[in-house]
Amino acid sequence: EIHIKEPIEKEVNPRLLPGELLLCEASTVYKYIQEDGSNRGTYGKLVCTNFKISFLDDDSASDDNEPQFKNKIVGENDITLQCVDQIYGVYDEKKKLLTGQLRKYPEKLIIYCKDLRVFNFCLRYTKEEEVKRIVSGIVHHSQTPKLLKRLFLFSYASAAPNNSDGRNQTVMFETLEDWRDELERTKGNVKYKAVTTNEGYRVSEKLPLYFVVPICISEESILKYEGRGIPIWCWSCHNGAALLKMSSFPKEQDDSTAQMQKAFLDGIYKTISKPPYELLKTDDLSSSLPSLQDIQTAYTRFKQLFLIDNSTDFWATDVKWFSLLESTNWLEIIRRVLKKAIEVAECLEIQHTNVLLIEETATDLCCVISSLVQVMMDSYSRTKSGFQSLIQKEWVIGGHGFLDRCNHLHKSEKEEAPVFLLLLNCVWQLVQQYPPAFEFTETYLTVLSDSLYVPIFSTFFFNSQHQRDTNKSGESLKTQGGPFRFLTVWDWSVQFDPKAQAFLNNPLYAEKPKPDKSQRKTARFKHQRQLSLPLTQAKPSTKRGFFREETDHLIKNILGKRIGKFINSSDEPPNSLREFYDSWHSKPVDYHGLLLPRIDGPEIKVWAQRYLRWIPEAQLHGGGTIATAAKILDLMEEVQSLQVKMDEEHSQAVSGDVHSVPMLRNSARLSSLFPFALLQRQSVKPALPTSTWKDLEDEDDLVKRDDEFVDLSGDML
To answer: Keywords assigned by UniProt (predicted)?
Structure first.
């Protein structure tokens, strides 16, 4: 039954950005709300521009009841063209993938997004001509191969005024001074030097304009093989040991070439193994970590678990949740990557050994491991500006192929792999294990992952610094304003107002104290911490449901706690590494020192906020970590207001500070997946298949037991 609401009479027009053009539209489109399996929804207009697909209804025209966490660029019913994953049409209740030219047009349209949203549109009440235009327009503009200059990035850059506030503290690593400052900060300038050999990109278009190499490496060596076989500096540890990376030579070479390259490499290794350099350990990541294809396959399977069409599908797969999750292999890949980062940290910290990461191009897994090691070992990389500078250094300037790996141009699915998402997933594990160590929140990481698909920022839309620089000039476009001035994603004011930006900052971040020598050797209580978590389930359950076990710790525990029994325990780290790992975990955590993630099976969890935020059934109203955060922020606000009153009494009013934290009143109304889930959104008790209800009833009247079942009827609101 469809409750038909009269189509909107007043004209609702899309809010267009500078350079954004309306391409096609369709009126009287019905958008389903698939929360409870019913056909409830709302009428509106579906439009497609050169930037996004957007659904406009009555509410689009008003600013009432706006969420506290509103994105100024991409609204709740907006999908950027780069964010579209797959489009399905429904013909006589059968789903069919839509690509290329269409002979027949569907009665329903389902759009799956890369940020895991699912949109369902009914086109039965739309004029046939409009259906043809909007469906073919959406499929063409979001799924067919594009030229780089056709990206909205260029339209926006040529039309938008550059209103960047210029207060961005992120180091961009576009100048020689930036690299020299980083060398000085890490005290690596004694053994390493920033070089200008690649100015004009005369060495290689894949290398950045400036980079750092060991002082003993000559310019001739760098030029000889276009930068291949040259150790490039990433970071220096406090004890002088350094993390390096190197692009390897192609494996398929004739004998004479291979021998020359081997002799060249031997010479390089000998040079950088002598004093003042530490011993060198090489690690070929292509053989010690999963391949990019394995990573892509695992993530493709993993994301399917969260692209839920309706409530019935959610509950039907619930009883198979753990086996489905384990079969994707995604959490195991995260665990292996974290373990590799621990191995590298142990070499640098304990063995005082230089580590050279080797990969074919040194722009994929090298970026993941080098970034993770720096986050674990350098507290600066755990600040917001430090983390952003790290992404600039290792990924953006370092030459990670965002354009190919995210498949922004739809040129080749073979090149696609979620390498940057893998890093963010690994960093999230650290953030949720050690929250006070990070100046930013998991919401910051989630928003950063969403920004991968917003083509008004140049940060994630080029393969190299060379590609960015050559396209910046606007040679092929007759622009009057000279070179394009691209925005950087690190200017968060473009997407969020100050109140929303507060959600990106961790209010409980343990800021680095000033060193006090008198207190350094004071005794500290040693907390009790289990050194090796159990990898087996204590009491196996016949039905491992998503919501029917340990619901009082829902989001925190169900996503990882029981996964351990599926982890292959034979893959144990070597003794020295295990000793290092256990020894560190037996001591109190220094939030500004080395951080080691817990990697035993149950500790690797699913990033709940990113993957479950659009699924109403996974929300706890008034519960979850956000409820705790809301109380803390309320308390902080109260303390700040008291401080202001005290200051006023001393005639030193500081009125501006009172609003530095977001107002989160009525925390009982918040969803556990706030700020992405709307406050007013309710999850209705789902229409479960009869067989599933029978399974529930057979399990010792599980439905009636408050501690093992969550009533999703919204009574708590």
So the answer is: Cytoplasm, Sarcoplasmic reticulum
Helices of type H across 476-540: 498-501
Report the number of distinct structural domains present in the chain: 2
What pLDDT score was predicted for residue 532? 29
CA separation for the pair 126, 27 (Å, rounded): 6
My answer on whether 272 and 368 are in the same domain is yes
Mean pLDDT of the chain: 82
Could you tell me if 67 and 679 are in contact, meaning their C-beta atoms sit under 8 angstroms apart? yes
* Mean pLDDT, range 285-299, rounded to an integer: 97
Q: How many CA atoms lie within 13 A of 415 on its CB side?
A: 14
Residue whose structure tokens are 């995260």:
334
Determine the pLDDT at residue 574. Answer: 67
Short-list 703, 694, 677, 665, CA closest to 619:
677
The span from the CA of 673 to the CA of 554, in Å, is 12
Strand residues in 123-268 grouped as ranges (E): 192-195, 211-214, 232-236, 242-247
Does residue 265 lie within any of the structural domains?
A: yes
By the 10 Å C-beta count (0-12 exposed, 13-18 middle, 19+ buried), 180 is classed as: middle
Q: How far apart are CA 457 and CA 351, in angstroms?
A: 41
In a domain, 263, yes or no: yes
Model confidence band, residue 63 (pLDDT cutoffs 50, 70, 90): low
284 half-sphere exposure, CB direction, 13 A CA radius? 7
Buried b (16+ CB within 10 A) or exposed e, 30-62: bbbebbbbbeebbbbbbbbbbbbbbbbbeebee
Work out the angle at residue 139's Cα, subtended by the Cα atoms of residues 136 and 145, and round it to the nearest 5 degrees: 125
Tokens 């989160």 map to which residue? 664
Is residue 435 reached through a cis peptide bond, with omega within 30 degrees of 0 on the bond before it?
no
Give the contacts of 604 (CB within 8 A, at least 6 positions apart): 331, 332, 334, 335, 338, 429, 560, 563
In a shared domain, residues 183 and 263 = yes
Residue 29 phi/psi, 5-degree rounding, is -95, 135
Contact predicate 390/381, CB 8 Å: yes
Distance CA 379, CA 437 (A): 8
* Contacts for 553 with CB less than 8 Å, ≥ 6 apart: none
What are 22-43's pLDDT values in tens digits?
999 999 999 998 655 567 899 9
User: For residue 432, what are its two tokens?
Assistant: 């949720």
Residue with tokens 């660029």: 73
Q: Does residue 317 lie within any of the structural domains?
A: no
pLDDT at 21: 97
- The angle subtended at Cα 396 by Cα 392 and Cα 400, nearest 5°, is 135
Query: Last residue of a domain, which of 144, 160, 186?
Result: 144
In tens, the pLDDT along 355-407 reads 999 999 999 999 999 999 999 999 999 999 999 999 999 999 999 999 999 99
Given a contact cutoff of 8 angstroms between Cβ atoms, the answer to whether 453 and 410 are in contact is no
> Percentage of residues in the chain with pLDDT exceeding 70?
77
Q: What's the rounded Cα separation, in Å, for the pair 708 and 159? A: 56
In the predicted structure, residue 706 carries a pLDDT above the cut 70: no
Residues of the domain holding 374: 176-311+330-474+483-503
Quick: pLDDT tens for 174-211: 999 999 999 999 999 999 999 999 999 999 999 999 99
Residue 709: burial class (beta carbons within 10 Å; 0-12, 13-18, 19+):
middle
Q: Which residues are CB-contacts of 687 (< 8 A; sequence separation ≥ 6)?
A: 36, 37, 311, 312
Q: For residues 370 and 265, state if they share a domain.
A: yes
Q: Would the pTM of this model clear 0.90, i.e. be above it?
A: no
Residue 405: its H or E element: helix 402-405
Q: What phi, psi does 683 have (nearest 5°)? A: -105, 120
Q: If residue 591 lies in a helix (H) or strand (E), which one and from where to where?
A: none
